[in-house]
Amino acid sequence: MNPIPLFKVFGIQINLDFSWFFIFFLVTFTLAEGFFPHFYPGYSFIVYWIVGSISAVLLFVSVLLHELSHSVTALHFGIPVKSINLFIFGGVAMIEEEAPNPKVEFLVAAAGPLCSFTLGILFFTMAYFYPVDDLLNGIINYLMYVNFALGLFNLVPAFPLDGGRILRAIIWTKKDLLTATRISSLSGTIFAYFLMFVGVISILQGNFINGMWYGLIGLFLRQASKTSYEQTKFSVILSGYKVENFMQTVKPLLPDETVLDFINFYYPFYRSSIYPVIGRDGQIYVINIEDIKNIPEERWSVVHVIDIAKPLIAYVSPYDSLYKALKLMNKYRLEEIPVVYGNTILGILRKSSIELLLERYLEEEKR
């Protein structure tokens, strides 16, 4: 299901995944039925659940601040950030591009743990100056603990955790990005299997809940490590190719040409699902073959292409990389995208051409 949009911070969309409600309930339950009654006895059931809920919300505020630190640092270096998603395993900043160099990679990765440790020190200071044995002290101590734990866990050198990205940045200073990602991704896979092993041992010892969480986090990290490496590999491959080498040149339609003209003289040659049209205002528009299917065939000779044309929502330059083109096509869910230079239509780039290039690369890699 699509996440729930909450608000924007520094232009970054904050989203809430539906899986978050499960972890919110689990954290609240653990605090209300275990942590607070054990360390701060004498309060009612309702009070424990209210305090547990407040603590769970503040935990995710801490997670959000952790991810915002990554995002703001990335934005500072000109790296776009699409959103931050809060979900069952915490949060993730959807940073859209690789860092341009190892230094930036290191700083973006280190910003999250630094934020968590800063929060941990802040709550430690608050607990020191408020040594009262009550539930407010309990909330402060809990937030101190979880922020230190969040910072330490993320510093594990296992990609794509922050520590794994720091490791990648260090290796990147000596090797290329892909090699650095491969090594740090391997460390992430090893750590993931370690967590799954700990989970199995915990279950065998009768601690089913902890064992289940170790196993789930291990499975998540294993998949995330593999996916992150594949994304980096594809970005490195596609960044080495320009759109101009893979596009199909086309002659744009003029506004007074009819749908029948397009079907008879353009479509058989180009076989493109979208096609550029020069509007009477000189702007570029596109028609879609799906829209033509909704027009009765007997009207094709009287309907002008400009009448069914739509504004151009996305295009690429011939000098853009295939990686940028693929990201745009995925963002707008396009199978084909016009290639424009200035205000001149040059051609159309198909996603299938990019996928074919990747398939050939993967086949050569296997051999």
From TrEMBL:
Co-factor: note: Binds 1 zinc ion per subunit.
Annotated organism of origin: Persephonella marina (strain DSM 14350 / EX-H1)
Protein name per Swiss-Prot or TrEMBL: Zinc metalloprotease
GO molecular function: metal ion binding; metallopeptidase activity
Residues annotated as binding Zn(2+): 66, 70, 162
Keyword Mitochondrion: no
One BP term from GO: proteolysis
Superkingdom assignment: Bacteria
Residues that span the membrane, as ranges: 20-39, 46-65, 77-95, 107-130, 142-162, 183-204
Active-site residues annotated for this sequence: 67
Chain ranges of the CBS domain: 309-364
Cofactor(s) demanded: Zn(2+)
One cellular-component annotation, GO: plasma membrane
